């Protein structure tokens, strides 16, 4: 195959041949560089990854700069070749005929088929992209028509926002694979292009899948809660609601670990890290399953051991204390077993650890006798029924309500809201105000000038109204015990009354109010310190 002469003279023919060659070369150069960088930029933009957005924009600008630089170099090379041919008086027609002769008809037909297939693939890509956009618009309209919770709607909108990127990248991935096979692209360029699209598709697909799973889990749990209202499964659905954020984070971690594993497998140098992906997925899954088992076991233990409301209050509090203790023990056992399984997955044999636990425990026990004392004293406090959750107790200078008892420490909330955390080994003498009745003692000051019989009669009359005012808390009518103390400025009359456990402060405040109102109603003076200021006598001037 030969090229027809473009001019009659060799010099003009050389100029036209080199000009045509430069035009074709520049067109191919700009098409390859600018088109490839533009496709990568659009792929990065479609993926929605903000970190890579700057990279895509920079790559597109550098590709245009590189194309301009190479164009200048090609133009200079063409001018140099033309100048040399004119200087030597050489006709370049034979050399161009030789180069064109190497392009056989089979090669030209293959190139034409490849270009035609490439054009058809791009046309099909845009047609499928338009169809996908119409389907997404229909899905968005249906989503707006559905009555969804705000959280579900947010996750659904995020999933739909990722869907165009996934569709575009999937179509681009298919087009590139078919195009590469048709035009026989060099292996390094083929690997770079297909790997870039594969990574973008994997990351975008993972993000969209996570948003879809968030929406699906929210939807499922909400529907289960709606169906389980008023049934015996309502508590278990409440547990699922509490575990939902943890479960969603675990699903997200598993998805991204899977995506990272798929990406790593594309690089031979990182292939050794690929087996760790399934191991991490198994670890995350086991710990999430353990948290589910722990939460469900809490509900089961509580339902099995909790008593009805008709049972005595001390029995309910005793069972509540043991319920919390059993729940803690069950949680520690489950997480310990899961940790041993995790060590086994990482290739660590847990048998020596379990065998050495006894020796280590004995060594620690001998060296940490205080901890052992706390644990033993805590066991005796529980099994001897000395204190329970909800008891109002006094230990030394600490007085308040028992909030929690663990094998090592006891937490007490005092009247001022302060939380006291005491080691069980420090608890020596316990005063428990919640076991049976206690006495509320009030001492009322009476002036020496008052009629003592009238005062005692008023105190007895006023105190008798206390059980009606505080039913269930003031067990008996207060008793006037008589004069308790004779002070310098007043007499102190002692009043005692039996009260329900933990109610003595409330009863004392109510009785103080009744006594003050009774004294004021009967015009009885309540003594208080008085002072007299004497001014020196000043004789008149």
UniProtKB/TrEMBL annotation:
InterPro entries: LSM_dom_sf (IPR010920), MS_channel_1st (IPR049142), MS_channel_C (IPR049278), MscS_beta-dom_sf (IPR023408), MscS_channel_2nd (IPR006685), MscS_channel_C_sf (IPR011066), MscS_channel_TM-2 (IPR011014), YbiO_bact (IPR045276). The keyword NADP does not apply. Residues 441-526 form the Mechanosensitive ion channel MscS C-terminal domain. Residues 329-369 form the Mechanosensitive ion channel transmembrane helices 2/3 domain. It comes from the Bacteria. SUPFAM superfamilies: Mechanosensitive channel protein MscS (YggB), C-terminal domain, Mechanosensitive channel protein MscS (YggB), transmembrane region, Sm-like ribonucleoproteins. Keywords: Cell membrane, Membrane, Transmembrane, Transmembrane helix. It is found in: Cell membrane. One of its GO terms (molecular function) is mechanosensitive monoatomic ion channel activity. Residues 370-435 form the Mechanosensitive ion channel MscS domain. The keyword Transmembrane applies. It is a multi-pass membrane protein. GO terms for cellular component: plasma membrane. The chain crosses the membrane at residues 15-40, 65-87, 107-128, 159-183, 195-217, 279-301, 322-341, 353-372. It holds the Pfam family MS_channel_1st. PANTHER family: MODERATE CONDUCTANCE MECHANOSENSITIVE CHANNEL YBIO. Belongs to the MscS (TC 1.A.23) family. This is Small conductance mechanosensitive channel. The lineage of its organism: Bacteria, Pseudomonadati, Myxococcota, Myxococcia, Myxococcales.
């Amino acid at each position: 195959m030969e090229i027809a002469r473009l001019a009659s003279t060799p010099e003009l023919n050389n100029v036209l041949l080199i000009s045509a060659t430069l035009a074709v070369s520049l067109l191919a150069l700009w098409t390859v560089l600018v088109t490839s960088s533009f496709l990568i930029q659009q792929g990065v933009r479609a993926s929605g990854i903000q970190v890579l957005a700057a990279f895509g924009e920079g790559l597109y600008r550098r590709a245009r700069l590189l194309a301009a630089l190479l164009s200048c170099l090609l133009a200079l090379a063409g001018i140099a070749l033309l100048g040399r041919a004119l200087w030597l008086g050489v006709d370049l027609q034979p050399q161009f005929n030789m180069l064109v002769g190497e392009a056989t008809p089979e090669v030209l037909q293959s190139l034409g088929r490849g270009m035609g297939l490439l054009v058809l693939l791009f046309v099909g890509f845009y047609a499928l992209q338009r169809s996908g956009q119409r389907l997404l618009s229909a899905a968005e309209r249906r989503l707006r028509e559905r009555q969804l919770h705000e959280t579900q709607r947010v996750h659904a909108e995020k999933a739909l926002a990722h869907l165009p990127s996934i569709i575009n990248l999937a179509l681009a991935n298919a087009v590139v694979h078919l195009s590469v096979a048709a035009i026989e692209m060099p292996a390094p360029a083929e690997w770079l292009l297909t790997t870039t699209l594969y990574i973008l598709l994997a990351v975008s697909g993972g993000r969209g899948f996570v948003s879809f799973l968030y929406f699906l889990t929210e939807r499922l749990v909400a529907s289960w809660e709606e169906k389980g209202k008023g049934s015996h499964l309502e508590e278990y659905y409440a547990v699922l609601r509490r575990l939902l954020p943890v479960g969603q984070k675990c699903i997200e971690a598993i998805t991204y670990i899977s995506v990272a594993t798929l990406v790593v497998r594309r690089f031979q140098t990182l292939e050794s890290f690929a087996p760790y992906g399934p191991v991490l997925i198994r670890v995350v899954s086991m710990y999430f399953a353990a948290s589910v088992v722990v939460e469900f076991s809490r509900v089961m233990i509580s339902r099995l051991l909790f008593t009805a409301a008709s049972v005595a209050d001390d029995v309910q509090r005793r069972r509540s204390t043991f319920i919390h203790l059993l729940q803690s023990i069950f949680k520690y056992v489950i997480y310990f077993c899961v940790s041993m399984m995790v060590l086994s997955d990482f290739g660590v044999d847990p048998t020596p650890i379990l065998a050495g636990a006894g020796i280590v425990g004995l060594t620690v026990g001998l060296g940490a006798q205080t901890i052992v004392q706390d644990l033993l004293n805590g066991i005796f406090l529980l099994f001897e029924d000395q204190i329970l959750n909800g008891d109002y107790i006094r230990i030394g200078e600490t007085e308040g309500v028992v909030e929690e008892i663990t094998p090592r420490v006891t937490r007490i909330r005092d009247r001022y809201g302060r939380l006291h955390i005491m080691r069980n080994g420090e608890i020596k003498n316990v005063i428990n105000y919640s076991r049976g009745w206690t006495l509320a003692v009030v001492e009322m000051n009476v002036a020496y000038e008052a009629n003592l019989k009238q005062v005692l009669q008023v105190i007895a009359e006023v105190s008798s109204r206390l059980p009606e005012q505080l039913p269930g808390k003031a067990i008996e009518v207060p008793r006037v015990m008589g004069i308790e103390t004779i002070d310098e400025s007043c007499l102190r009359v002692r009043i005692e009354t039996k009260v329900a456990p933990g109610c003595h402060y409330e009863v004392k405040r109510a009785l103080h109010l009744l006594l003050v109102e009774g004294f004021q109603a009967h015009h009885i003076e309540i003594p208080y310190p008085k002072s007299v200021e004497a001014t020196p006598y000043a004789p008149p001037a």
